[in-house]
């Protein structure tokens, strides 16, 4: 007679797609900026991260691969708070993500939108991202149901900031935190590279989106609450008086000024467990 031998199947885990609503969200969050935190203390708490400021949910396949892009220069206090609060939120939101700090090299005039373009280009060299979330370093969401991912339309996330009495300062406001899928971003040729100094670049991006026939998606005012860490205007980021005039030409200039005309030189890429820190020369006027 023949004996039946059972061969055990190799242990393999078939992961399912993560649910539309992440199960571990808690809703409203307590946020304060009085406690001093060192980077080392923050690192110790974020034991779930991989080199470069990466995370992906272990037990399901994330719905989106998200690059978080932060324009940066000399805001290390804010950086510590941002990392301390955002990493646990992003983890609960079950995204496959990386945090990119795009650090402007030198003392030339700051350029937020150009740094965000650099973030897009550098992130795309590393991984097949399908969504980009662009955030100021000083904005912390007060509710983790405000999802850091992409939607059918370009999304404005920072709709209710404390400094604007938890409301929109004006109807078309697109500043602070926003998200665009790769397709949405490419449809508008990325962001303008020519807004040096403070102001206007967020409105330009809004104009680009409008002129390509897209609408803006937003969370409601309760979910979209933010705290901004109080600060003075930085050195070398004075309000630029030309920017309001440039804004009128936004839809005209967008085809020639954007990701297709981006020029920069990477000076260094440092991978910390909390972030990928990219220092870049963006040819800033002095
Ligand atoms: C508003 C908008 C911002 C942008 C800006 C105009 C809010 C909350 N945000 O920000 O999205 O449209 O106006 O340009 O209303 N940064 C540095 N180092 C610097 C200068 C700027 O890291 O020296 C980065 C940092 O991520 C900062 C961001 O650029 O959060 C915006 O600059 P800001 O915070 O000085 O400008 P703010 O708060 O008026
Ligand atoms: Mn700010």
Structure, described:
This protein is of the alpha/beta class and 286 residues long. It is built from 7 helices and 11 strands. It is 23% helix and 19% strand. The termini are far apart. The protein binds uridine-diphosphate-N-acetylgalactosamine and manganese (II) ion. Manganese (II) ion binds next to loops. It is found in: Golgi apparatus membrane. Belongs to the glycosyltransferase 7 family.
Describe this protein with a few key phrases.
7 helices, binds uridine-diphosphate-N-acetylgalactosamine, alpha/beta, 286 residues, 3-stranded mixed β-sheet, binds manganese (II) ion, 8-stranded mixed β-sheet
The proportion of residues forming helix, as a percent range, comes to 10-25%
- Total strands: the figure is 11
Bound ligands = uridine-diphosphate-N-acetylgalactosamine, manganese (II) ion
Mean pLDDT: 96
Main sheet record: 8 strands, mixed
Cα gyration radius (Å)? 20 Å
Q: Tell me, briefly, the overall form.
A: globular
Q: Helix- and strand-based class?
A: alpha/beta
The end-to-end distance, rounded to whole angstroms, is 90 Å
Query: What amount of the residues lies in strands?
Result: 15-25%
Poorly predicted residue ranges: none
Count of DSSP helices?
7
Helix/strand order, N-terminal first: HEEHEHEEEEEHHEHHEE
């Amino acid at each position: 007679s023949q004996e039946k031998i059972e061969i055990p199947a190799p242990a393999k885990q078939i992961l399912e797609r993560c649910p539309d609503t992440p199960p571990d969200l808690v809703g409203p969050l307590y946020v304060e900026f009085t406690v001093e935190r060192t980077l080392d203390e923050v690192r110790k708490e974020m034991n779930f991260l991989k080199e470069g400021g990466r995370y992906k949910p272990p037990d399901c396949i994330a719905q989106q691969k998200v690059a978080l892009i932060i324009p940066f220069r000399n805001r290390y206090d804010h950086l510590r708070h941002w990392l301390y609060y955002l990493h646990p939120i992003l983890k609960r939101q079950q995204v496959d993500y990386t945090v990119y700090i795009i650090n402007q090299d030198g003392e030339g005039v700051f350029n937020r939108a150009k740094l965000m373009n650099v973030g897009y280009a550098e992130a795309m060299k590393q991984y097949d991202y399908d969504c980009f979330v662009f955030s100021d370093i000083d904005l912390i969401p007060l509710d983790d149901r405000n999802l850091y991912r992409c939607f059918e339309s370009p999304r404005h996330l920072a709709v209710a900031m404390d400094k604007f009495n938890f409301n929109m300062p004006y109807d078309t406001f697109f500043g602070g935190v926003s998200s665009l899928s790769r397709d949405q971003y490419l449809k508008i040729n990325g962001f303008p590279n020519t807004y040096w100094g403070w102001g206007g670049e967020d409105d330009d991006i809004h104009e680009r989106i409008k002129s390509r026939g897209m609408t803006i998606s937003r969370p409601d005012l309760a979910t979209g609450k933010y705290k901004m860490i109080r600060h003075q205007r930085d050195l070398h980021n004075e309000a630029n008086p030309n920017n309001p005039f440039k804004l009128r030409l936004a839809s005209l200039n967008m085809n020639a000024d954007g990701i297709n005309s981006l020029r920069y030189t990477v000076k260094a890429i440092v991978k910390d467990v909390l972030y990928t820190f990219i220092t870049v020369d963006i040819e800033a006027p002095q």
